[in-house]
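Entry:
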Amino acid sequence: MKVVILGCGRAGSILAQLLARDSHDVTIIDYNADAFRRIADSKVHQVVGTGIDVAVLRRAGIEQADVFIAVTNGDNTNIMSTQIATREFNVPKSLARIYDPSRAQAYREIGVNTICTSMLAAGLLRDFVLDKPWGSVLDYIDPPVATQGDAQMDGEV
């Protein structure tokens, strides 16, 4: 399977190494060449650039990709690059990691595959605090949560 990952931080580099170990063809993109130190000894292909640049995506092999995963530290970059991969290059499977729960849900509602790691972590931590067994990932994806910004916009405190 050909996988293109945007973002060579902790999550991206670990995912890339896991997939490469399983004999998948993995390319990782990051705008900072120094980020590739995390995967220096692996069989992961490296491309320096930004994931919203079509030329960079092409250099990474997006046209042959089966999967595109965006895990930069920017929600906007992850959303935009995932949309480009899906709409411009017809990548069959794509996912954007999003930190903002309301943004993740809004984009899921219009067909962008997202995972909100903030909600996932908060749900697992809540269950730990309450001595509840951990559920499946799906149990933590869509719980309605009002952030401070949402409350202020609605006139509530």
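Residues 2-98 form a domain with the Rossmann fold fold (CATH 3.40.50.720).
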